[in-house]
## 1
Amino acid sequence: MKKPVRSIQFRISLVTVFFTLTLTIAFVCLSFYFFRGYARSSVLRASEFNMQLVANLVQQDLVELNSISNQLALNTRIMNCLEGNASKRELLDCHDIMTDLCNSSSSYIYLQRLLVTNQEDVFLQVASSSANSTPVNVYNYTELPGTGITGESVWQEIVADPLARPQTTDNLLIVRPVYRFRTNEQVGTIYLTASSSLITKRLSSYPSTLGGSMYLQSPVGCWMIGSDALEPAALDYTVHHTDSTTARAANTLIQDVTLQNGDRYTMVSCPIGTTGLRLTHMLPNHLLFAGSSLLPSMISILVPGVIVLGICLYLYLNRFFMRRVIRLRRRIAQVADGNFSTDPSIEWEDELGDIGRGVNHMSRDIASLLEKRLADEKERQHLEYQMLQNQVNPHFIYNTLNSIRWMATLQGATGIAEMTTAFAHLLKSVSKGSRPLITLREELALLNDYCTIQQYRYGGAITIEIASISDESLCECLIPSFSLQPLAENAIFHGIEPKGGAGSVWLDIDQAENGDLIIAMQDDGVGMSAEAIENVFREKQPDTPQQKYRQIGVLNVHRRIQYAFGPQYGLTIRSELGKYTRVELRIPRRYAAMQEGEP
């Protein structure tokens, strides 16, 4: 009995546990990988959605504040005041215009300072109700940051306001020049600052929800967004990969970056409209992949579970599978011991039942084969007995023919003696002709004995002779035994005898161009029609006994040649009615030495 460690049951259980464990771990790893990717995409898209929402709200406020500066820059009364031609009343009216514009804006609460000045004698200014600042005049105007900017600057910088009380350091700045309509000459400047609470208020709860840090980026700088202020920050990083598939908006930028301290982050950056500002969320990668620590725990739970499943499978196979296998092995051992009876109890309705049915079928076949073997053995013994019995008959005939030959010789009947001798030779060749191939010389000797008998029968009216032989060595070629005698018999009985007179049969032995042996036998008898030639090689039953004998003799030789050498060899017949019939026998040129050397 095999050891359990080598049994099929143990191997199936081991392979099942191994593959189940492998597939389970692979499934867990793949599921965790896709889940982690899904979780990452969800966090990044949530970050993108929130920042897009905040950016849209911030953009609305910035657009409204920017609209105030645009309207003031295009107001003719404001322009007239900046040119220094306005009275005090007109200056007050311009101030009222500025106040009305600010009060009509929903973003007025974020306005820190609005100043319209020509930097000489006109300083029109408005501040929000929450702002407390020192009025700007010709003496302190230069203390404001950004006053030295030439041209237009819209929301490009975060600046401090030294004249505010208390002093603020995180104000968004607009500096817009005012030009005369006709000459395009600058006559003044609009100076507007907005509180950073415009951004921090919107993002007051956002960083704590998803984690990470928020930044405001512009072409000229970067600021970290705190709970209530903007702090200057240096955001230096190296980009490793840009994710173009996770972002929903085309203008959202998601990149895998590494900071200077080596920490890996995923950066989500959204533009605030067309202001040039961008909100940037820096998410640490350990927050995106926080679930990675769960993988070892999941595997540590699954592995024991799979092992327990393998043990249960082993016990189940031991109860269901192995018991049937043992019964099959016992039944096969009985067949090996000679018990060939069938056992229907092993023919279950499953795959093992198929094996049981196969064993029973094998038992029946073996029993049938043994019975047939016994019958064949009895038949063989009977045939051996008949063969031994038949060997006595030719021996008796040989002795009788020899007695006739000696009596004919003593009485001077030489013809009878020669015919008897020739017939004895033929009979001996037929009875002892166990060789399928003999030499052409031996075949010609048999043909000569047959011709001797026929010449005495026809009184010398028929002659058979070898007309030509191209090479004497061809007589040593091998040829199927009794191949020429049936052809000569057909030539005599079906060619010359119907003619009613004397006749001749010529034999030509030659070698073809490809080396084959060609033996042609031609007679000067009545000839054959094309239909008769065609019927010779047909297998249908002949109409007359004469046709039957002719077909059997020629077709027998033709088939034996093809069986011995192949379908490309055999007999061909040419004939002309009333003149001749020529039969050509084609076989390969083989010698006895070659035949003995073949495997």
## 2
Amino acid sequence: MLGVEKVGLDDDFFTLGGDSIIAMRLITRVRAAGFTVTPRLLFGHRTPATLATVVRPRRQAATQTATARSVSPAGPTETVLPPTPALQAARVHGMNGGRLTFASFSSPVLLRTPAGLDLATMVAGLSAVIDQHDALRGRLVRVESGGADGGPAWSLAIAPPGGVDAARLVRRLDAGDLAAGDGFAGPGGLALLAGVAAAANAELDPDRGEMIRAVWLDAGASSPGRLLLLVHHALIDGVSWPTVLDDLAAAVTASRAGERARLTAVPVPFAEWARRLDERARAADVERRLPFWQDLLARATPVRWLPGQSGPSSAVTVSLPPERAAGLLSTVPAVFGIGVDELLLAALSLAVGDRQEGDGAGGVLVAVQAHGRQEYVVEDRDLSRTVGWLAEVHPFLLERGAVDEGADGRDGDGYSDRGVDAAVARVRALMAEIPDGGTEFSMLRFLNPRTAPILAAAPTPTVYLNYVGRLGRGEQTDWSVAAEDEELFADWNADVPDPFGLSVIVRVLDGPHGPELTARWSSGPDGPPAAVVRDLAAAWTRALSALAARAARVESTPPTGAGGAVR
């Protein structure tokens, strides 16, 4: 999970490269082993020794027997859910106004499948997974009124178990000749996979309930095949995928053995989470946080990207090799007492700060992606197996630094120790005021009818930052993510119009030589021109180097006094 061979009792989870996304996976495994643990406990007890003092044995989660069922011609009765923050945010951003654009907004994965499968077994496995996770039986519902902010309402209608005919979603392609030739990773194989993915994506129509497509490339009785599984984003987020893939492997394996799939129960189905979140949004303690968010948004200053003119949309990708990325994911944030996501924000603050026009206080509003699984919403029940689009975005202010922060001179990367320390301190202090990952903002902005119109009229973020987390690519085995997945889908959805002026999507790929950090920078409407995007990306990588260099100096000579780098 962390890409290390051994973990000691006193090793810090985050120093070893853990992040909030990996934390959710770890929690799932701990609970599967029969213990009670919450994200809050893990973040407060970061070593195995301290975590062991607070976890408690619990009764093993029940299993549910899932079998494939067909849908009647008349169709089952659906349950319409209240709007959710992710769907309402998609509506507000408009996906630049197009139903057609949102129809193609999907999440794909390519799996290696065992040799010798048959179509009936594949269909039975997928059917069991769809029956297990209610969000996968959803279709999009768009109503012209009813949103908490006075606008349209986007939500899901969920069919009951057995209400989706999985046989209609799965297509088999004979790939025996391809497997016998250059294989799936060759030019012909990649071209075929790309074409299949594009064709499957074109079939999605969330308003009509066409939300899932599966294409099985059958390589025959002796060669592993591939399964392209493509789900509309309205039904799934990145944290959900490991649960879906684990369940699919278990369900197909059981079906192949002539057994019924026995999948671990889902403690909180998506529908229950959506209803609880909608109820919680109206609570008095949530409403009391409105002034905090109003103040944060009011301090934003307009961004006029130097040299001053916006340009056509552009994109640039920067990568840091393992020898540079490893420390940034472990020891560097540990020295500063922050997480990887906060380190990325501090670097962004340094990179953007010098490239704004104007003087004075204020700062740049950034939309920060978070996983959205705050268990206090459901009375601290387990959300680690809840599948759906729970991820959320909340604003964060990259406050402008003081003029004298560079007074002690700049290092080779162009940033002074004082400036680096101050940027880290500002990010750390503000993040401490957002203890729930921004869920309260999502409730106030999209679900509470009293506060939503107020926040809808406030300034909106200019920049979007999404730290996807670490993606492992270990040994290729049956049901692992296929080696071709990264090349095929690294820029998937890149053609979806960007609702932000500048978007930064950061991911880490764990390879045989260590973690490689990649960031894709892209501009949208009113964003910076191509030259400025390149300059900002370069400045961000320099800022990361400056943070690493400062951390090395802090380790040897810790600073003292307020405003120092160490918490």
